[in-house]
């Protein structure tokens, strides 16, 4: 009985988080009741899982960042050459960012748990940038902190390309990963 209840509670939480992402993407000021309705649950059930809107936003932030970490680790970045790893990580991260656009592009709650996860994401990224530099993909004197910031900016720009809603093919994570990596490594200058 305890296991079934726990599984049911986990399903409810997942449904609430997914519904909240969709509802808040449409209306950042939406109510808990609107989230409950979108999740197909009662308001009481939502409040049982999340005491208030702030708690829900905090859970969204933690969940989305954990999914980013899972996507990075799923790419197994240490098991391939840096260029292959960078492409896999980028494509996986873009998939998550596409699913959690509201949460990952807005100033959601930055709790200690979310901050710790963000630190872990940064560590993974810096490790990959270090490998890329050691393997000659990045210049030996490249500022890796700046490179990380540019990479994050490219990820955001790729996921928010104008007109992407009208052309779903423009949101293909593998194609966008290629674009991001090509821009990161070669910029917009002519190829030599």
From TrEMBL:
Keywords attached to this entry: DNA-binding, Transcription, Transcription regulation
Keyword Transcription regulation tagged: yes
Transmembrane stretches, start-end: none
All copies of domain HTH tetR-type, residue ranges: 10-68
Superkingdom of the organism of origin: Bacteria
DNA-binding stretch(es), residue numbering of this chain: 31-50
PROSITE patterns: HTH_TETR_2 (PS50977)
Full protein name: HTH tetR-type domain-containing protein
Originating organism: Streptomyces vastus
């Amino acid at each position: 009985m305890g296991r079934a209840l726990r599984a049911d509670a986990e399903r409810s939480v997942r449904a609430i988080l997914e519904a909240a992402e969709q509802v808040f993407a449409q209306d950042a000021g939406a109510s808990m009741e609107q989230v409950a309705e979108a999740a197909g649950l009662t308001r009481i059930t939502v409040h049982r899982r999340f005491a208030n809107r702030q708690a829900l936003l905090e859970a969204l932030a933690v969940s989305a960042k954990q999914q980013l970490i899972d996507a990075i680790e799923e790419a197994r970045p240490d098991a391939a050459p840096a260029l292959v790893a960078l492409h896999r990580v980028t494509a996986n991260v873009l998939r998550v960012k596409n699913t959690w656009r509201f949460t990952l592009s807005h100033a959601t709650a930055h709790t200690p748990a979310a901050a710790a996860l963000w630190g872990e994401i940064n560590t993974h990224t810096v490790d990959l940038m270090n490998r890329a530099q050691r393997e000659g993909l990045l210049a030996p004197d490249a500022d890796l902190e700046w490179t990380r910031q540019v990479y994050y900016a490219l990820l955001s720009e790729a996921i928010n390309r104008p007109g992407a809603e009208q052309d779903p093919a423009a949101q293909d994570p593998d194609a966008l990963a290629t674009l991001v990596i090509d821009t990161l490594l070669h910029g917009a200058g002519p190829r030599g």
